[in-house]
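Troubleshooting log. The previous run stalled partway through. Resubmitting the same two chains, unchanged.
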Amino acid sequence: MTLRSPNADAHDQGLERAFAILHATFPEIRMPIQSICTSLARTLGRRTKYRINAASLALFIASRIATAQAQDVSLDTMTLLAWVERAPGVWSAQIGDVDSTDLASFAAAEPKREALGAMNSSPIPFANGLSRGSMVAGRAVAHLPLGEDERLYGFGLQFRGMNRRGSVHHLRVDHYGDVQGRTHAPVPFYVSSEGYGVFFNTARFISVYPGIGNRRDSANLPPIRDRNTDSQWAARPQSDAVEASVVGPGLEVFIFAGPTSLDAIRRYNLYFGGGALPPRWGLGFWHRVPTNAPADAIRDEVAQFAAQDFPLDVIGLEPGWQSKSYPGTFDWNSKNFPEPASFISDMSAKGIRVNLWENPYISPESSMYRAMLPHTGSHMVWLGVVPDYTLEVSRKILQDHHDKTHLAIGVSGYKIDEVDGIDEWLWPDHAAFPSGTSAEIMRQTYGLQLQQTLHAMFRERNQRTYSLVRGSNGASSGYPFVLYSDYYDHRGFVTALVNSGFSGVLWTPEIRSARTKEEWVRRMQTVCLSHLAQLNAWASGTKPWSMPEVNDAIRAAMHLRMQLIPYLYTAFAEYHFEGTPPIRSVTLEQGFPVSGDTMKLAETEFMIGYGLIAAPMFGKETSRKVAFPKGEWYNFFTGEIVSNGESIETVHAELDEIPLFARGGAIIPLAAYAPNVAAMNTATEFEMRIYGSGPATGRLYWDDGETLGYERGEYGWYRATAIPSDETIRPSIITEKPFGRDLPSAQWRFMSR
Amino acid sequence: MTLRSPNADAHDQGLERAFAILHATFPEIRMPIQSICTSLARTLGRRTKYRINAASLALFIASRIATAQAQDVSLDTMTLLAWVERAPGVWSAQIGDVDSTDLASFAAAEPKREALGAMNSSPIPFANGLSRGSMVAGRAVAHLPLGEDERLYGFGLQFRGMNRRGSVHHLRVDHYGDVQGRTHAPVPFYVSSEGYGVFFNTARFISVYPGIGNRRDSANLPPIRDRNTDSQWAARPQSDAVEASVVGPGLEVFIFAGPTSLDAIRRYNLYFGGGALPPRWGLGFWHRVPTNAPADAIRDEVAQFAAQDFPLDVIGLEPGWQSKSYPGTFDWNSKNFPEPASFISDMSAKGIRVNLWENPYISPESSMYRAMLPHTGSHMVWLGVVPDYTLEVSRKILQDHHDKTHLAIGVSGYKIDEVDGIDEWLWPDHAAFPSGTSAEIMRQTYGLQLQQTLHAMFRERNQRTYSLVRGSNGASSGYPFVLYSDYYDHRGFVTALVNSGFSGVLWTPEIRSARTKEEWVRRMQTVCLSHLAQLNAWASGTKPWSMPEVNDAIRAAMHLRMQLIPYLYTAFAEYHFEGTPPIRSVTLEQGFPVSGDTMKLAETEFMIGYGLIAAPMFGKETSRKVAFPKGEWYNFFTGEIVSNGESIETVHAELDEIPLFARGGAIIPLAAYAPNVAAMNTATEFEMRIYGSGPATGRLYWDDGETLGYERGEYGWYRATAIPSDETIRPSIITEKPFGRDLPSAQWRFMSR
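Second attempt completed without errors. Output:
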């Protein structure tokens, strides 16, 4: 028994308080506790060298009692997680009781077990005893180990930075507005630079503390420093764990093995059904018309695309197609669209698809209203009722209405707006829904509910859609819905594109308008290298030709987009069948050099498919730095070598040039330019661009481009090979998996000879 | 039975799905449900004019089943709140089971029932049946009625805007950084322009939806408008309720009656013990020294105040007074302060008090560490342990240490830093604490815990403190702790000052540094008219004389502060005994003209005590607009009339002038200038400034200025009266409640003659 603490000789003033604690603790003792302590202190005092008085003794005993009664808060009290293998390289563990509605229940398809099994095997990444879980004050808490040098990526559609270590993320579906954790798709998945991924399978608001928050009994605490005198003092001392929690009965955690970080992402995507494979037309150019544009004006606008040699695959109708909006009727506006069926069929005849904007809150003037009303929540959004789409009956009302009035006349997809936030626009966190689903889970999954409902409707017709949605969440890789946002910072748009690849979501850094011609061109170049190339002119009324002095540069970017379609489509097939994100961070490449500089650059450059790196320019820049992974990298357009590995290079690009680089040894298939995919489908020749002087290879995926046939095996895989340095060996295309139709013939182009 | 909905003739594709629902619902029916429906549809079809087929019938039945099974989400399902009177004009109602730790449990004192009883009586503001509560999906929800034109103020220390209606507030104690709802003191109290207040007595994170979020079955819905065609369309349609919720077992709600809005605030303050009465020296000038300043440097700095004729009452020591900091030891740094006792006693001899900075996270090198360790939480802050101050034993360890090593040698108070946020700095939301208190409740009350612990310690010595704290919450009016922040926008600082008065918190819009001399002077002028006049130079190292070219203007503001002390002290006495905030919004004045312009202006002007309005200037302004309430208002310095009621006036003020206005009919007591309160206490004359030409009156409160004697009746109230227009009647001071000592004599000054 040691009584050296400064309170050991606590002055008499504290005596009464300490005795009060003891009296309250031992009400059965009738003798004054003060007397007991005084006497005991005297006895003890004679036997030690320390000053002991009744007060200090009372305090000591009171403190020990409090400790004994107190909850043990050490890490040891957390239970070891019991990992169960769910699929090859995929494990899960459960803390408490999990919800019936979790994110995994929204997955678009069953796990691709065969593809998972075909990957390199990798062990469970955490040593025994290092991952733990517990219930604390109504929260389910997970504790996972983290190495000193690990970097963590993910948490969905993030617009700033890449490495999420060291910041707290309160993940909540919301309109992005610079508030950390709140974004359109706050996917609770992260991937480590050490080659594994972790998914928190919950549809609740979840708070994640990646490498931040030091436990008192951590085995790996950083040194304590004096802020006053030590310049190494850290405001956020590094922690040795990722901790996460939800308020609720429990939490399920998934681990996705590597061996590489990209493998972990692939497993995540494959486990939730494989990535989305859009219809080929979805990769063409999209244009959204002004919100109130009537059919005739749109016909004129469409004609201008052809007249001015700009491609167009999809025309997007905005709120004015509905008889009323905000809240919407989902019924055609007979003034703007007196004959919607003939309008769509005229578009279709030109090879152009029609996409409809909507938000899912229903006006009393909608023909769906009476049927839907009983299945809606306690609160409204813009005075429209909020259907509970966790109910089969609600989904069916929406599907039946849309199938009959939209799909039946040829609508190709939707732009689902306003399923994200802001808090003031959506239902409150305490709203009630007829299924009993909490407002919180509704908020986190409403975008998923819409994707699920509409996706199923198109599938019924053996038809693919490519659509837009403004809110999503985890386990959604399989949905052919692309995220968008009102956030309009160009750099942030590109960083979101980079980050989307960490979380199994798709993103369009759409173009709307620009203050300068430089910005206009640079934005167009970016969006033409993204998941969905769209001019979202609903409010701006801009057209591709709105700044005539840069029409050529704008046209070049759009034409390039069209030519890249075979390559992009192949990248999406790799997403679907192999889980590899079509657009992703360069840091996922083996041999990417890690430093402060390269990691910062990596926030604004990205891989496209297996062999391209894009590095968008911003504003009036005509040069920028690009960080290159291992290997040789060539200027995509000229075939000149730019990097021979793990370097930072300054690259120049005039306004009409896009910094785009091809991997040495890659063969990139391009289509001959066509104004839309319908025209491209009848093309007879691909250009196969070969980069570098060594053996080169490339892939090509092909199918009908529109139906679900690919799910039934109706597709082909082709491999192009060439050895530029050996002209005796002719380049060739090998059919790895045959598809019924003939491929266009190949025109070989040696870019680096 | 009506089958007119558009899905009534749902096409066959939906048939199977509807039948699946029916089959799942009635598993006991062996006969194919399809046959039943087909047959039934045929029968029904013959009897109605509507087309009925098996599919539509199945869907209709399925929909009715879903509705019958569904939770009723209407407002009717919420229980009527049962209001119980707690004190005159104060009612509470309970939803579910409330927590043992709520905000009210931290109140500094018992309700001032006598003062509450002495107020004008007012009925409960809500009609029967309009206030409701319920438990929804683990949340306790309150629903309170709201009139169409009501404006709502409050929710604590808010830096932007005043009327909080129409925005969602997720109230969380945090460092303010422009994230709505997160602030140093997110007090869950609001006051309505209709003259009542509402307090949500919870220590949990609470989400409040004031006038935002329309219920489907609201009786007062605004009209639905088409966003496309109607310019009146509102993104946030007005709602007829305030709703609020916490995740937890329940929620207690308080109502404070008026009849005026100011009365409701007064009742709130009185119910939670009355406002804080600082020691008189707390109203003098405070100066904080650079973080590592040693005692000798501080002596020099203090000497400069006297030499340059700047007042100084309190010197604040920053982290360098501790042997280590972040985490702190709370033990003296023997290098900087070899003899702390003599340093403090030297200061005391000059009439200067010493205030100590600390944050409450304990370094292993602290002499308190070993005793405290068992009573700390699972996680650390800057690698210091986090005491669980809900435990008596923890409080006692801190009190004993501080009393012995600080108070015993004369420390006058503390600046309690870092009890607010950011998330990355504090413990995670899932941290565990030995008392079993949740991390959430710890977060919301940690600032309160420290105020409670330290306040009690000073009280034990029959001594008042005036201290600083960076985190607080509701029910805290009685604590003599002033909030501060790193947020440094001057306008935001002033708006926070205005808003502090709605929520029973005190705030210093401290001055640190400035980019221009104009900003330096204007900031000094503002802080000298606030709850605590402090130059917080811990990092900047600035002194009042740091911009010599404006020394005179700076000195003038500081001298004015000193002269205002009798008036300010009286204003605080009115806060303590009557609940009236010493600084508060001009909108609380009867007859304040409400318009868009005046409400905007009111964000940057404020009442001080019973008779002054201050309207700070910003940046290089030399004029601004000021909105005046009813009555005559005079230039405080010149006595010239500025407004004769409910007007907006443009006022001019050169850099050395402060726009300060006195109410016509007010008598404002000023002290003769003294460099600190110790010197002022020996002064023999007050200047009584009389404004206007009609009968004038003013109050003066006086007591010993330092002890708790005022709680035992040892104080005096005096009333000054004058009739400037009738020179036959001499001004006089009437003793309304006598105090043992003589007041200084009065020098009358007729400002408007």
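Takeaways: Chain A is about 25% helix and 25% strand. The longest strand of chain A covers residues 696-703.
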